[in-house]
Amino acid sequence: MVLIDPVVRVTNFEHIENCFNRRQALTEAKRCLGCLAGASRIEELCVNCLTCLRVCPYGVPVIDDEGVINIRKEQCQACGLCMGICPAMAIEFRSDYIEQAASRVESAAQGKDGKGAVVVFSCAYGAYAQPEFTQKYILDRDTDLGVVRFPCVSKIDSLHILKAFEAGAERVVVVGCEDEENGDCPFHDTIFWGERRVQRARKVLEEVGIAPERVIFTTLPQAEIEDFERAVKEAIEKTEEASAAAAQE
After folding, report:
1. Would you state the pLDDT for residue 42?
2. Which of 67, 229, 23 is nearest to 146 (CA)?
3. Which CATH number fits domain 97-248: 1.25.10, 3.40.50, 3.40.1360, 1.10.3470?
4. How many Å apart are CA 30 and CA 50, to the nearest integer?
5. What is the pLDDT of residue 181?
């Protein structure tokens, strides 16, 4: 909450708390979406490989007295890192936020002219939750980009990227946030793991004969959300230029 400067406070009897602006309100509201909505261990699939324990930046998974992994739901931050990295696929989310986002991939891959669209995976919080962004890219889709918002890019799995190509996408761009270090993003290591999952998808695409450079990872500060479309297209242009230069060598 923003407080009025003490020097000003002593001169009057006005409320000392200022209201949140819209962006601050959206940032605060997203905490409710993560409450008890995080990871849950699927007992019949888990082999206690300890991958989640090593990956979690919050120290949530622990080994209990019986030597079994316990993901403490009351401490889970619902970042999604462990779910995407679990080799046994033995972790699920207690909320259906990820399934809701994934269900939009197929429609996002369909372009207006009948051709495959550029599918863009982005965060769903902060500036990405503002009405203007929602209206332009989700409701009106007043662009040739098919935007799919996930509750943090750390929840995007390689399978979601591959699903977009299966649905006919021309290209996939994953847009990470640059706001982790300045405190605007509550999650950790999102860019690192986002890039890792893009690299994994590229390897699979290359194995089946699809150009891996059709998957791109880029970042954008939320303060520059108005340049979202331009930033995506610039990332595509840079990738195409790099590919053309590599082909000539």
Report:
1. 94
2. 229
3. 3.40.50
4. 29
5. 62
